[in-house]
Amino acid sequence: MEQPNKQIAAALVKAQRNFSPALKTNTNHFNSRYADLASCVEAVIDALNGAGIALVQMTSKSETGVTVETVFIHESGEAFRAGELHIPANRMDAQGFGSALTYARRYSLMAACGIAPEDDDGNAAVKTQRQEEPEGMKPKAPEGMKPKAPEGMKPKAPEGMKPKAPEGMKPKA
């Protein structure tokens, strides 16, 4: 018995070998870098098409947001549906629904293809050592709390607060 979707499965494996990272080339209003929808599509479309796969993102009606499903269609006619993703709209107007649609398409595509966004400056590939914070930026313990004693050192109990031995046991001298 032939396995269903055998041809598209092999083609997806072939395509995935050639996917590029989705580069974080844009900056949002929080000043955070992100990979936009175009970067995500660009990371996979040539590899998909080269393996005979068309990318389709279908939308469904929803009163609270948008629902997107990424579907891969192989030249053999086989299709692979990656599952629906619903994103609520933050506003009930064209801007809110448009924003939710773009977000849903981007994340549905990344999940379906198994790609993740990556910095385009190479920092993601190179682990840098954490730099020491400037003197005024070091975290401090909240007022009234002392930091823990270094390992191997016992903190001393305040005067009058010495621990007592359990009943029936004598403290060692």
Descriptive account of the structure:
The chain has helices at 6-16, 37-50, 94-113; strands spanning 22-24, 26-27, 33-34, 53-60, 65-74, 79-88, 117-119. It is globular, with a radius of gyration of 28 Å. By secondary structure, it is α+β, with helices and mostly antiparallel strands. The protein has a three-stranded antiparallel sheet. Strands 1-7 form a two-stranded parallel ribbon. A two-stranded antiparallel ribbon has the order 2-3.
Shape: globular
Distance between the termini: 81 Å
Strand numbers in spatial order across the main sheet: 4-5-6
**Which secondary-structure class do the elements indicate?**
alpha+beta
- What pattern of helices and strands is seen along the backbone? HEEEHEEEHE
**Rg calc:** 28 Å
- Give a short account of the largest sheet: 3 strands, antiparallel
**Approximate strand percentage:** 15-25%
Q: Please tell me the overall pLDDT.
A: 80
Flag low-confidence runs.
122-133
Number of helices: 3
* Topology, number of strands: 7
Q: Helix coverage percent of residues?
A: 25-40%
